[in-house]
Design brief:
By secondary structure, the protein is an alpha+beta fold. The protein has four domains: 66 residues, Winged helix-like DNA-binding domain superfamily/Winged helix DNA-binding domain (Arc Repressor Mutant, subunit A); 148 residues, ph1033 like fold (Roll), CATH 3.10.590.10; 29 residues, no CATH class; 114 residues, Trna Endonuclease, Chain: A, domain 1 (3-Layer(aba) Sandwich). The protein has eleven helices and 15 strands. The strands form three sheets. Strands 4, 5, 6, 7, 8, 9 and 10 form a seven-stranded mixed β-sheet that branches. Strands 11-12-13-14-15 form a five-stranded mixed β-sheet, with helices on both faces. It is globular, with a radius of gyration of 24 Å.
């Protein structure tokens, strides 16, 4: 792959995969090419048209060009009845058939999701989250117990794991819905001609429709799809940094110090309240770094020394300090690891309001060295 093609790909990625030809050339001139080159437009046009596997022209009077890899990667999911469970658990779930034993196209769409696809989560008239698919659908996945009343006829379905990223919600106004309807395919769409939401769960989004939604979201928070893909709670920059132009978008983001404290406190309170109801007495040592654990729980004759972690994502991996590892090893079998995952941050509130969360309890916590992964080292310079 030559350097020009690589540069074109980079520019398109920085603009969520879609850009007008003139803007594309302008960006390339400014950031990649020697400005004195008078043939840039001709060179770029040639590369775009001669690499159909990499680029394609969207049928539009605006002369829009896009990355072919982005063509079938965007989806819309309506979660009015399922958002709380699916956001907390970090997945999407749909049954195979309806109560009349018929397959429905918007449930069958689950079959086509693949790793890296991007999904806009609609909940009560807002886009609350954007998620990235972690893997293809798991078949014959048991219906979540919370769906028993709304979907009593089908016990099995498809489950797709996703990484949810909470954004500042986008209110879906009539103007936005009208604009979205301009990108309506021949059949099966989100809204009808009266701007009413159709009964659908999951639908593919045309690239131009996804780009329009992203542009609307950007008006408040300046994030790109690359930021969503590179989201990591421990990233050095937060959404506020992007919003306040303290750094470029497209490099990912994480939680601010303030947001991390909100998540930590919510996780701590959720577990504490659960254990208080069960009759345990609690001493809080979370402000004591020398302890290496957060709380001491006692209910005669038992005691637990618990380290509590909160996360907006999954419970697959957490960061431990040196003291926390040492304390867990020292205090076995009384050590416990508590992870409250899937915490949703409502960014329409200031400060963000936490909710949901799934508690995972690991008692008699015995740290295995092969499960530890170093992320930093001290390097001593020889004298």
């Amino acid at each position: 792959m030559n350097l020009i093609i690589q540069n074109i790909i980079e520019v398109l990625k920085n603009h969520d995969g879609v850009l007008g030809f003139n803007d594309l050339v302008s960006d390339l001139k400014q950031n990649y090419f020697v400005k004195a080159d008078k043939n840039i437009s001709t060179i770029v046009e040639k590369e775009l048209k001669s690499n159909p596997k990499t680029f394609f022209e969207i049928e539009s009077k605006k002369n829009l060009w896009a990355l072919s890899a982005y063509k079938n990667r965007y989806y819309w999911v309506s979660q009015n009845q399922t958002f709380k469970v699916e956001r907390r658990e970090g997945y999407l779930w749909a049954p195979y058939k309806n109560s009349k034993r018929k397959e429905l196209f918007h449930w069958e769409t689950m079959r086509y999701l693949k790793k890296g696809d991007v999904i806009f989560s609609h909940y009560k008239g807002q886009i609350k989250c954007i998620s990235v698919v972690k893997d293809k659908a798991t078949e014959n996945y048991e219906r979540p117990k919370e769906f028993k009343k709304t979907l009593p006829w089908m016990n099995l379905g498809r489950m797709v794991k996703v990484d949810y990223v909470d954004i500042e919600p986008l209110n879906l106004t009539k103007e936005i819905i009208k604009e979205l309807n301009k990108y309506k395919p021949d059949k099966n769409w989100i809204y009808d001609r009266n701007l009413k939401h159709n009964v659908i769960y999951l639908l593919p989004l045309p690239l131009v429709a996804a780009k329009y939604l992203i542009d609307q979201i950007k008006k408040n928070q300046k994030i790109t799809i690359q930021d969503i893909e590179y989201f990591n709670e421990d990233h050095t920059s937060s959404l506020a940094d992007i919003k306040n132009s303290k750094r470029k978008s497209g490099q990912g983001f994480g939680l601010s110090y303030k947001e991390k404290k909100i998540v930590e406190k919510y996780a701590m309170d959720k577990y504490k309240n659960m254990m208080l109801k069960d009759g345990w007495s609690i001493q809080d040592f979370s402000s004591r770094r020398d302890k290496g654990y957060d709380i001491l729980l006692e209910k005669n004759p038992n005691k637990i020394l618990a380290e509590i972690k909160g996360t907006t994502g999954s419970s697959d991996k957490i960061i431990l300090t040196k003291n926390e590892v040492a304390a867990a090893k020292k205090n076995y079998p009384y050590a416990a690891l508590i992870i409250v995952s899937g915490i949703h941050l409502d960014r329409s509130k200031d400060p963000p309001l936490p909710s949901l969360g799934k508690v995972k309890e690991i008692y008699n916590w015995q740290i295995e060295n092969h499960n530890l992964e170093p992320i930093n080292f001290y390097y001593t310079i020889d004298k």
